[in-house]
Design goal:
By secondary structure, the protein is mostly helical. The protein has 14 helices and five strands. It folds into two domains: about 210 residues, Rossmann fold, CATH 3.40.50.620; about 80 residues, Tyrosyl-Transfer RNA Synthetase (Orthogonal Bundle), CATH 1.10.240.10. Helix 1 links the parallel strand 1 and strand 2. The model has no long low-confidence stretch (mean pLDDT about 95). The structure holds adenosine monophosphate.
Length: about 325
């Protein structure tokens, strides 16, 4: 199979269970089946203005966690976005055909503008354009992402089509959002609302030890329990069941769903089981994180190899894109 698979993760902090189950786990499953590019979106993370130390630390952390989760840098192209300057140039060129109205209407922009009203920068507005550049630079067919990224993928398709129409070419392919297990998923947070996120304070991280995971899950928001048979679940309890359905066996899900329906459920038992099943997924990754983190020589080799492979593909695309636009040298 010659399909090109690409996906990235912002380096805004440690990877959480949502990142792993929604995205990274898919990368790991796909790496043997396609031509895979996985990257660390460090430019995207500058929209939140990290300090230089925090920025560098986060990039290292995500690189380590990608590797610990099972990405093989010999098989996949694993790189850091800022190591590939061609992406920035494609971003600039795509920006010429991206319109203020459509960017302002993007849900992720509106969300961010609401969450950080003191810092509504142009990087937030043009986030989907940079994402399109990330994807189109390698002509990706499939982009394994969580459900929250569907709209940005739609925009990447729009920018690809627009470029093709504008220059009368059939150059860029239209990438599709993809989940290895059929449906895109959204892992909710433990605070009873919304999705699990890096900055929401509602996450379980791959770097969390077993004790921390147990503590976080035992503290997850619930309600006072069902009192009428077959009653509708509150959002917070439904969230725990959503995670349970993804990490636990069908028997476990059936057991607790039954207990809920008959009002016999004890949330403490549900949480204990959920914690053990989450630990089963995270513990092996967690122990690899510690080993890889201290191996700077290995990390440097991986990053260099990834940058070289990614630049070869990116430089070819950029040369063709410039040529199509009419940017041709006089010397
Ligand atoms: P981000 O952490 O926003 O940079 O997202 C990186 C990747 O993780 C993207 O593919 C997202 O779709 C995915 N992702 C982030 N949060 C979640 C979540 N709560 N559930 C599922 N996927 C997620």
């Amino acid at each position: 199979m010659n399909e090109i698979v690409l996906s990235g993760i912002r380096s805004t902090g440690n990877l959480h269970l949502g990142n792993y189950l929604g995205a990274v786990q898919n990368f790991v499953k796909m790496q043997h089946a396609g031509n895979c590019y996985f990257f660390i979106a460090d430019y995207h993370s500058l929209t939140t203005h990290p300090t230089p130390e925090d920025h560098h630390k986060s990039v290292k952390q995500v690189l380590v966690e990608y590797l610990a989760a099972g990405i093989d840098p010999e098989i996949s192209t694993l790189y850091i976005q800022s190591d590939v300057p061609e992406i920035s140039e494609l971003f600039l060129l795509l920006n010429m055909n991206a319109y203020l109205g459509e960017l302002e209407r993007t849900t992720s922009f509106k969300d961010k503008a609401r969450k950080q009203p003191e810092n509504v920068n142009a990087g937030l507005l043009t986030y989907p354009v940079l994402m399109a550049a990330d994807i189109l630079i390698h002509h990706a067919d499939k982009v394994p992402v969580g459900k929250d990224q569907e709209q940005n993928l739609e925009m990447a398709r729009k920018f690809a089509r627009r470029y093709n129409n504008m220059y009368g070419v059939d150059y860029f392919k239209e990438p599709v959002a993809y989940n290895f297990d059929k449906e895109l998923i959204k892992i909710p947070g433990l605070d009873g609302t919304g999705k699990m996120g890096k900055s929401e304070g509602n996450g379980i991280f791959l770097a969390d030890d077993e004790k921390t995971i147990r503590k976080k899950i035992m503290r997850a928001v619930t309600d006072s329990g069902p009192t009428i048979e077959n009653s509708k679940m509150s959002e917070s309890v439904n969230n725990l069941f959503t995670i349970l359905k993804i990490v636990s066996s069908a028997d476990t899900v059936e057991f607790f769903t039954g207990k809920y329906k008959t009002c016999e459920i004890r949330y403490g038992d549900l949480k204990k089981q959920l914690a053990e099943d989450v630990i089963k997924i995270i513990a092996p990754i967690n122990s690899r994180i510690k080993d890889i983190y201290s191996n700077d020589e290995y990390l440097s080799r991986v990053a260099r190899m990834g940058a070289e492979k990614a630049r070869t593909s990116a430089a070819k695309t950029l040369k063709e894109v410039r040529e199509i636009i009419g940017i041709r040298k006089f010397y």
